[in-house]
Amino acid sequence: MSVKIPSPCIGVCTLDPADRTCIGCLRTADEIARWPEATPAERVQIVLQLRVRRHARGIVGIGGSRQRRRAHKLSQLVP
Known about the structure:
Largest sheet: none
Distance between the termini: 46 Å
Number of strands: 0
């Protein structure tokens, strides 16, 4: 039985033109495209990379559920 790893998508789907990462989940365009066919091991690697990216951007302590990350990201987008 394989482990189901949910998508890191938080529903704020816009690619940053500078580095081609999603401003919501921080996946690259390639990672987003590969996700549906990725093996569980590949998905784990992507998720671990996301942790590194969040930390590198100073996004720490938000953690938790996708809903909390989405709410936080949306609150940053509202002027």
